[in-house]
Amino acid sequence: MIGLINKQDYTVSEFERIERDLSGSKLAWVKAIRKSAMSRFLKLGFPTRRNEHWQFTDIRPITEIPFKLGMKVDFDVTRAREIIAAYPFGAIPSHQLVFVNGNYSPELSSLQGGDDFVVGNLATFLETDLQDVVESHLARYADVENHAFTALNTAFFHDGAFIRLPKGRAVNLPVHLIFVSSALHEPLVSHPRVLIVAEPDAQAAIIESYIGQNGEITFTNSVTEIAVGENARIDHYKLEWESPKALNIHTIQVQQDRNSRFTSHSISAGGALVRNDLNVIQAAEGTESTLNGLTLLAGRQHVDNHTTIDHTKSHGTSRELYKGVLDGSSQAIFNGTIIVRPNAQKTDAMQTNKNLLLSERGLVNSKPELQIYANDVKCKHGATVGQIDPDQMFYLRARGLGEMEARRLLIHAFASEMISRLELEPLRVSMEVFISNWLVSDRRDSSDVETE
Amino acid sequence: MLEIKNLYAKAGEKEILKGINLQVNAGEVHAIMGPNGSGKSTLAHVLAGRDGFVSTAGSVLFEKKDLLAMTPETRAREGVFLALQYPVEIPGITNTYFLRAAVNAIRKYRGLEEMDPMEFLPWVREKAKLVSMDQAMMSRSVNDGFSGGEKKRNEILQMVVLEPKLAILDETDSGLDIDALQIVAKGINALRNKERAMLVITHYQRLLNYIEPDVVHVLFDGRIVKSGGKELALELEKKGYGWIEEEVKSARPVSVA
Questions:
Q1: Where are the domains of chain A?
Q2: Deepest in the core among A6, B52, B69, B169, taking most CB within 10 A?
Q3: Does B257 reside within a domain?
Q4: Considering only CB atoms, which chain A residues are within 8 Å of B95?
């Protein structure tokens, strides 16, 4: 029974036994990080709905399903290849790194030439002379103290990606990290870890795709740390496309230096239970953060987006727009925190959350949290939940469009604002195709995770 | 082409139309005038099949078919077009895309081949010139951020492109300055021919200076109380609607509680 990860197995002795096989187990600093994260996790425990940041998301499936650590299980490369081939964004030209159940797959990865920067799997870099760079950034940003899943990931991560953009380097092709969850025989868990370090004036687009096969029960608990150096620019894409029975908890922690730009696109179309924590700290003056989100839900899918933008210094700008399309009895949560610290004068922050309910059983919880401690700032927020507009429906039908077609067109129109923001053209084009297919698909109640 | 017999209809809970009788033949342009609240827009919406406007008695035949039994899209596909008084904004759908979707929905219904973008774009560009609409407006979202005049021109463009058999224009002239009015009138006149009928609903006579009607009807309290030639419109312009009210009251016994 090696590596069983269910509630009662999260013990110090189990951890110590598993830890020996994790990457960097011979490095004192890695051991220290893991150990303190584990002890923090044991203090925090899994969050319950009594915790206000988890009040709408019941994580019991995670604690009640006996997940086995994915790194302990051999994976089938052919099968993983098929899953990638079926994925709408699997063929986007990129520097591609593939992980299957948390294990790096060199066979499925392909690093294109031409762009001169550091990219590869994290476990390897823990054994190179770059480990100093890794050490100075890894687990320095993500919050182990208060976030149980981040602590759990920090204790148990085995592999993931390390990307370092040298000063002034603009990478032409996007970096595409594909995390395949494939659990044919038993539920599997993985704890991928991503570290992105952009030195001053560097620029790159990074895509993280989480994908899986229909019907398979997997749990992915990811942590991504991004350090955006002075005047650097990072575009980050998180695409959640896992099995409708998959569980996905992902924390993205971003640290922005002076005059840097960070843009996030978070699109969730897969998974049964998805929780995205996106925390951006504007650590210096003049930073720009743009957070775009789109959720397309059906059946019993549940997506919980928690974002925090922490304006700590002056002249920071943030623009946030999250949209949700909910069919079936799906549920979308949006919790957007904006903090403006006393030193963050001239902050300009705007947050919007819009939701379109396609059925009467869909549920939206939208909660803005503005904490403003400076006086010379502009902060706006707004949230809407609505159904298809009957006047728009009539207008389209009065011009000859059938009811179904008119409806699809209006849903598409709602989502298209987010699609048009995708700056990577191949991604935008594929997304258009995906949305069109999604709109005509038979979205039955396919997502279903037993909690009893 | 259009035969309305003793039509009663409600807007929401309120009875608005109280026995409309009207026959419009191919090639004719009928103006329907009347004071605010007389039922002009309700008539337009009942004919187009908008939710919330329900006929309670009477019948409407369009080319001998029961118009009221059809869905809004079937009416459009059969050749009925309503230019709305308040065109709806649809952010996220470009004007060109919307027009092509509409044209193809109707072509498909009529057994014609759908137009692909390569074929459609130059064709619609020509049509757009008629209402002085430039390429930039065609690439914008439907009516999104359009001025009042631009929205009305867009309605006329849709009509020109969809080539209906019966066009119902609901207060298309309202809120237009004289330049926009002339553009709109030019578009409407370009469509006049002996196969096509038009129902021009308006509060003012102004539009009828540009679009000469064959018949003018006065709608009052849900009924057509007077019909005549184009000179009736001029008379209304001069004298207002007050005298119509007087005429109706003296002709109809008023029940006193």
A1: 4-284, 390-442
A2: B169
A3: no
A4: none
Q: What is the complex's ipTM, to 2 decimals? A: 0.95
Q: pTM here? A: 0.90
CATH code where residue B49 lies: 3.40.50.300
Yes or no: say if A297 and A332 are a contact pair by the CB < 8 Å rule.
Answer: yes
Contact criterion met (CB < 8 Å) for B105 and A400: yes
Residue B56 domain flag:
yes
CA nearest to B39, candidates B16, B5, B15, B14: B16
Residue A433 CA: distances (Å) to CA of A92, A420, A430, A440, B170: 14, 13, 5, 11, 38
Question: What residues of A are in contact with residue B107 (Cβ under 8 Å)?
Answer: none
Task: Identify which of B49, B90, B105 has the shortest CB distance to residue A392.
Answer: B90
CB contact under 8 A, A397 and B93: no
| Nearest-CA distance B256 → chain A (Å) | 40
CB contact under 8 A, B162 and A400: yes
Most A-contacting residue of B41, B45, B90 (CB-CB within 10 A), to test interface? B90
Question: Can you tell me which residue has the tokens 């979707």?
Answer: B101
Kindly state the tokens that stand for A32.
């220290």
Interface touch A405/B105, C-beta < 8 Å: yes
Residue B213 located in a structural domain: yes
Per-residue pLDDT of chain A (452 residues; tens, 9 = 90+): 334 455 556 678 888 889 999 999 999 999 999 999 999 999 999 999 999 999 999 999 898 888 889 888 888 899 999 999 999 999 999 999 999 999 999 999 998 777 789 999 999 999 888 899 999 999 999 999 999 999 999 999 999 999 999 999 999 999 999 999 999 889 999 999 999 999 999 999 999 999 999 889 999 999 999 999 999 999 999 999 999 999 999 999 999 999 999 999 999 999 999 999 999 999 999 999 999 999 999 999 999 999 999 999 999 999 999 999 999 999 999 999 999 999 999 999 999 999 999 999 999 999 999 999 999 999 999 999 999 999 999 999 999 999 999 999 999 999 999 999 999 999 999 999 999 888 888 665 444 443 33
Which pair of structure tokens corresponds to residue A329?
């009895």
Cβ distance of A414 and B105 shorter than 8 Å: no
List strands edge to edge, sheet with A348-357.
A103-104, A95-100, A175-181, A203-212, A233-241, A261-268, A288-297, A317-326, A348-357, A378-386
Give the count of domains, chain B: 1
Q: Domain of B62? A: 2-251
